[in-house]
Amino acid sequence: MDLDLPAEAIELQKLCQDFADKEIEPYAESWSEEERFPSDVFLKMGELDLTGLLIPHEYGGTDAGYVSYVAAMEAIGAADQSFAAAWNAHSTIASLPLAVFGTEEQKKNWLTPLASGKKIGAFGLTEPTAGSDAAGIRTTARQDAGGWLVNGAKMFITNAGTDVSLGVTVLAVTGINDDGSKRFGTFFVPTGTDGYTVGRPLRKLGWHGMDTRELIFDNCWIPSENLIGDEGNGLRQFLDVLDGGRISVAALGLSLAQEALNLASVHATQREQFGRRLADFQAVQHKLADMATEVEAARSLVYRAAWLADSGRPFGKEAAMAKLYASEVANRAASASVQIHGGYGYVRESKISRFYADAKVLEIGEGTSEIQRNVIARYVTRSVRA
């Protein structure tokens, strides 16, 4: 069993590390304090072919695969979680529906500028009254004058309000089946479309440098060719690409946990109390040991899910496990790291305080920990029945 990263993944990780050291790390604190998404830095990522790692070459991507993507996320996420999360949303749930279900014309018009990094993408699922209950969305799309009329609202949407936002892919109810169940469709709504309004930036506990907004659709008309995939199958399409998104959020959690450990280790070896380094106290040593062990366990789960995805094998259960464990490890590691830092970890000038605030949402976004446990349990009981 070879657990080493392939050469191409190592090369990509090195490229991302160099980029993060130069373009992200020195400015991340100011982006957070200003609550500003650095769109210029995102465009620079596009120039390095880092904005379409999961998209085929013919549509502007590099088709690097999930293992390489996780390796890249380890480098970007360690520098700044806000920027990495925005890049992640763009690379997965904003781009994959078009890549998997879009027509050739849709891929040319929308996927190519996203994958090449000329524009950033957004996906609109969550609503003021629907999140974990994806089927409970109320935004509607009905056929009208050769197109679709969209009405409703989306909440907590990433990347829709930047100066380089191309548009948003939204899930909407398109009708009711004979058995009373809802029909769903997935639609692309370009930025600037009449009836589509982007709300003010939301002020969040963490991820301050990421653009997050409410979106309003008020008799927003889009042409029929903006329907992605099959009408009536929109929810299924979203769930089909969600497993890949879970791997990417797990990778984000892994990057945070590893950096929290790194920061704690450095502080423990430099800070002295009672005439000794913190690292010489057994209580601190045990915290570092527990963090290191959990980080390695999370890494194994995340890369296994990524390897399965790249191998074309089923990976839904493993993606849910990786997302669940890595997100919860990230929270435990961030908390332990702040504890080791003491007062230095509680001031906003410290990197670990920013990561501590960023960690919580990893247990919420793209499927809460409770939802992940439900998904895993279904897989487990299904295999028993089989």
Automatic annotation (TrEMBL):
<keyword id="KW-0274">FAD</keyword>
<dbReference type="Pfam" id="PF02771">
    <property type="entry name" value="Acyl-CoA_dh_N"/>
</dbReference>
<dbReference type="Pfam" id="PF02770">
    <property type="entry name" value="Acyl-CoA_dh_M"/>
</dbReference>
<dbReference type="InterPro" id="IPR036250">
    <property type="entry name" value="AcylCo_DH-like_C"/>
</dbReference>
<dbReference type="InterPro" id="IPR009100">
    <property type="entry name" value="AcylCoA_DH/oxidase_NM_dom_sf"/>
</dbReference>
<dbReference type="InterPro" id="IPR013786">
    <property type="entry name" value="AcylCoA_DH/ox_N"/>
</dbReference>
<keyword id="KW-0285">Flavoprotein</keyword>
<dbReference type="InterPro" id="IPR037069">
    <property type="entry name" value="AcylCoA_DH/ox_N_sf"/>
</dbReference>
<keyword id="KW-0560">Oxidoreductase</keyword>
<dbReference type="InterPro" id="IPR006091">
    <property type="entry name" value="Acyl-CoA_Oxase/DH_mid-dom"/>
</dbReference>
<dbReference type="InterPro" id="IPR046373">
    <property type="entry name" value="Acyl-CoA_Oxase/DH_mid-dom_sf"/>
</dbReference>
<dbReference type="InterPro" id="IPR009075">
    <property type="entry name" value="AcylCo_DH/oxidase_C"/>
</dbReference>
<comment type="similarity">
    <text>Belongs to the acyl-CoA dehydrogenase family.</text>
</comment>
<dbReference type="InterPro" id="IPR006089">
    <property type="entry name" value="Acyl-CoA_DH_CS"/>
</dbReference>
<feature type="domain" description="Acyl-CoA dehydrogenase/oxidase C-terminal">
    <location>
        <begin position="232"/>
        <end position="379"/>
    </location>
</feature>
<protein>
    <submittedName>
        <fullName>Acyl-CoA dehydrogenase family protein</fullName>
        <ecNumber>1.-.-.-</ecNumber>
    </submittedName>
</protein>
<feature type="domain" description="Acyl-CoA dehydrogenase/oxidase N-terminal">
    <location>
        <begin position="8"/>
        <end position="118"/>
    </location>
</feature>
<dbReference type="Pfam" id="PF00441">
    <property type="entry name" value="Acyl-CoA_dh_1"/>
</dbReference>
<feature type="domain" description="Acyl-CoA oxidase/dehydrogenase middle">
    <location>
        <begin position="122"/>
        <end position="220"/>
    </location>
</feature>
<dbReference type="GO" id="GO:0016491">
    <property type="term" value="F:oxidoreductase activity"/>
</dbReference>
